Amino acid sequence: MIKFSLSFISFALVFFGLKSFFNDPQTQRVLPPGLTITNFAGPDVTPSPACLAVAPTGEVYVGVDMIGSLGKEQGKGHILKLIDKDNDGKMDQHIDFAEVDNPRGIIVQGSQVFVLHTTFSKETKQATGMDLVVFEDKNGDGKADGPEKPLIEHISNAKYIRERGTDHATNGIRMGIDGWIYISVGDFGFHDALDRTGKKLTMLGGGILRVRPDGTEMEVYTHGTRNVYDVAIDPYMNVFTRENTNDGGGWNVRFSHHIQSGEYGYPVLFQNFTDEIIPALADLGGGSGTGALFMDEPNWPEQYNHVPMMADWGRSMLYIHRVTADGPTFTQKDEEFIKLPQITDLDVDGSGRLYLSAWDGAGYSGSPDKGYIVRAVPNNWTYKAFPDVKKLSVKKLTELLKSNSAVARLNASQELISRNNKQATETALKTASDQNLALDVRIAGLFTYAQLAKENGIATLVGFTKDNALKEFALKALADRKTFIDKVPVEPFLEGLKDSSPRVQAASIIGLNRLGRPEVANVLLNTKVPASFVAPAKGTEGAHATPNAAIILPHLAVRALVELNAVEPLLAAVKTDNATLALWALRYMHNPKVVNGLIETYNQSKDEKLKQQILVTLGRLYKKEIAYDASWWWGTRPDSHGPYFKAVSWEASPVIEKFLKEEAAKAGAQGKQFYVDLNARQRMDIPEFTVEEKVAATEEPKIDLEKIKNKKGQVGKSSIEDVLLAINKLQGDPLKGRAIFNNQGCITCHSLSRAEKMKGPFMGQIGSIMNREQIAESILKPSASISQGFASVMITAKGDRTYMGFITEETAAKVVLRNIAGEVFTIKAGDILSRKEMENSMMPEGLANSLSYEELASLVTFLSEQKK
Known about the structure:
Layout: H1 25-29, E1 35-41, E2 49-54, E3 60-65, E4 77-83, E5 93-99, E6 101-109, E7 112-120, E8 127-136, E9 149-153, H2 158-164, E10 170-175, E11 181-185, E12 190-195, E13 200-203, E14 206-211, E15 219-225, E16 232-233, E17 239-242, E18 254-258, E19 282-283, E20 289-295, E21 307-312, E22 317-326, E23 329-339, E24 343-348, E25 354-358, E26 372-378, H3 394-401, H4 406-419, H5 422-433, H6 439-453, H7 458-464, H8 471-478, H9 491-496, H10 502-515, H11 521-524, H12 549-563, H13 567-573, H14 579-586, H15 592-604, H16 608-621, E27 623-625, E28 647-649, H17 653-682, H18 705-710, H19 720-729, H20 734-743, H21 766-769, H22 772-780, E29 793-797, E30 801-810, E31 814-818, E32 824-828, E33 832-837, H23 853-864
Antiparallel strand pairs: 1-26, 2-3, 3-4, 4-5, 6-7, 7-8, 8-9, 9-12, 10-11, 11-14, 12-13, 14-15, 16-17, 17-18, 18-19, 20-21, 21-22, 22-23, 24-25, 25-26, 27-28, 29-30, 29-33, 30-31, 31-32
Helix pairs in contact: 3-4, 3-5, 4-6, 5-6, 6-8, 7-8, 8-10, 10-12, 12-14, 13-14, 14-16, 15-16, 16-17, 19-22, 19-23, 20-23, 22-23
Protein name: Heme-binding protein
GO molecular function: electron transfer activity; heme binding; metal ion binding
Keywords: Heme, Iron, Metal-binding
C-alpha cells in the first residue's frame, strides 16, 4: 500500500527542497513571453506567505502564516508591509504592520487594511474562530495605529479550527466596484457570525458572504461550494472562483461563475440532484485553488488582460481562465500562465505591477526557511507613480474614475464615497450618465453614485433602467442595499423580466427576490423551465460541471419564490402549466400547508404524470436538514448522496408517511418499485419501502506488507538522496509500473479509475498535480505530508472496540474505515466514543525497499501518466 498527497496543505515536499523559482530550467520554460519576473522578497522576510494585497501606490502587505493550514498554536503570524523605494522589483524596506494569527485575506483601501484571520483566547491559548477586522494607519508610519476593529466575528467554525486548523475555514477577501467586501467561506461554514449591527447569520457549508466596509449589512451571496479560497471580480460584477479539490471524493477543482442567490450544491446536491443547482463551468481535475484576481490593467499585454487569474497550490501554477459570455453566464477555457511552487495569492497595484506569493514547500504548519514574493511586469513596463487619492481634487479623482484601470477606478470610487459630499455625488452621476464613456467606467460611476446617494438616488437609478447599456447594473444597484429597499419600486424589475437580455432578466429576478414583495410570485412563476431540468438517472452522477445557461433563470426564480415564501401562489400553480417550476420550489418549503395542499391537489388530479411529480415532492419534504449548530462537520469526503446530510423528521412527516403508504398499497405489487426507488433516492428510510441492497463481495488481494518491507533491493540498500538522484535519470517502463503497482500492494488502498470504489487517495489524476520527483518522494517518505481526509484515525467505540485506519465514507449515521490490511469496518456514529487523527501516515515506510531503481522509476512513470 503506497499513500500519496493530493490536495491543498498536503502537497508532497521534495526531499531536497523545491528548487529556486529563478534557477529551475523547467520553470523557466513555462514562463509566459512578454513578462519580466523578479524576486521581490525571500524567506528571510516573508516565510510562509499565505496571502497578500497591494496598495494602489505599490506597498505590498503580506500575511505571514507559520501556523499554516493544520497548525493550532498561536503567535506565529503577522502582516508585513514591504516597500520598493527605487521601483527595481526588489523590496528595500519592510515594516511589521500588525500581529495576527492565520492571516487568510487582506484588502488595502487608503489608510485602512482589512484582514481576515483566526482569533485565539488569551486564557486558553486555543482558537476561538475567525474574524474580519480592519486596521488603520492614519499617521502613515507603516504600522497599525492601534488594535484591530472587528467587522464580522465568528465567521468560521471554532470547534473544527481547534481540532483541524484552518484548512476548510474562511479565506480570501476582495472588494468589488459595488463597494461590498466579498468573503470566501470554506465548508466549515459558520454559526452565529455577528456583524456590527448585531445581525447574526448561520451557514451550513461553504459559499460567498459579503459585507459593507463598515461591518454592516452582512449577507450570504451564494451557497453550496466546498472550499473556496478567493474570488476574482470583474468590472461588471461577475464573480469567479476556482475551488479546492475533494480529496478523492469526486469533487475536483471547479471553475465557477457565482450568480447572486445561486445554489451550487456541495455536498448533498452535486451528484444526484444536479438538476437543482447552478453547475460549475468546468471540472478541472485534481488541484487546489488558492488566490484569485481579475486582471484589468491598461499596461498589460492584451493576451494576459481582462481575464480571471487563478492560483492553484496543488499544481504550482497560476492559470488564466478565458471566459466567453453565454446568456446570463459564461463558458471558459483555462490555460497555464506562470509556474510558481505552491502559489498562494496575487494582487496588482495601480502601476500594473503584479505580485505573487508562494509557499514553496513550507509544510503543513509553515516554515521559517520557505516562501517568497515575486513581481511580474510586462517587458515594456515603466513605473508611473499612482497618486495619493487623499490629496486629489474631485476633478482629479474623476479622471481616475474614468481610467481603464480597475485599480484606479476602485480607489477613486472609494475616495469619492469617503468624501460623501454634493460634489462627489454629482461627478459620479455625471460619469454614469456620459454615454461616450466606456461601459466599465459608466458602471463605476453608477455604483459610486448609488453608494453616495443611497435612498435619495432611487429615482435616478430608476431612470438608468431605461438606458439599455446600464439597465442590468441599475437594477443591481437599486436592489443592492436592503436598508432602504422598501422604498424601491417594483416596476423596473417587472419591466426587466421582459427584456431581450438574459443578463437583465437575471438581474430582475434577483432584484425581485431582494425586494421581498409576495405579489410578484405569479410573474416569477411564468419563468420557463428548460428540457435540461431532468434529475440524473438512477445510479448515475449528474452534470455538475457542465455549463447550462438555460437553467439559470428558472433556478433564480425558484430561489426567489422560496425566499418570498409564496406558498399559496405555488400551490395554485401546481394545477397550471407552471407546475414544474412550482413543484421545484415547493420541495424546499417545509410547511404543513404545503404538504396538505399537495395532497389535496393529488387527490383532485387525474393527470398521472402530475400526480407522480407530487409524490416526488412529498418524498423530498418527508425530512429536512437539521438546524446547524456548528457541533459537527461532514469531513473531507462527506456522504454526497443527498438530498440532506443530517436529515430529521418534522411535524408533517407522519402525514406524508401515512399518505405515501396508502398510495403504495393502492399501487399493489406492480407499482411498489416506484416507492422503493423514491424511498432510496430521497433517503426517507420508511421501513415498508426499504429493500436491502445486496453488495457483491469483492475479493481483495492479500498482500504481505511486512514481507515487502523487509526485502532489501536496490532501493532499500540506498539513501533516499541516492534513490531520488537515480530516479531523475531513469525513464522507466509504465507497463512494468502498472504490474508493480499491483504487486507492491498499492491497490490495497488506491484506486486508478472513478469506476472503482474509492479507497485511499485517488491515483487516477496524480500525474496532473505532482511531478515524478514529488511522486517518488511521497512513496519513499509517506509521512512527510498526508492528504486531507487520509490521515490515520483511531476510533474507540462501544463494546471496548478500537479501530485504526482511514475513513473511506462518512454519513450522519455511520463511519466506514479501512485498515492497513484492507479490512473494512462500518461503525455506527452513535457507537463512537472518541476519534483521534494520528500524526503519521498509515502507510509504513519501506514498501519500495524491495525494488530496483529501474522498477521504482517504472512505478513513478506509470503514476505520472495518470491524468484523468
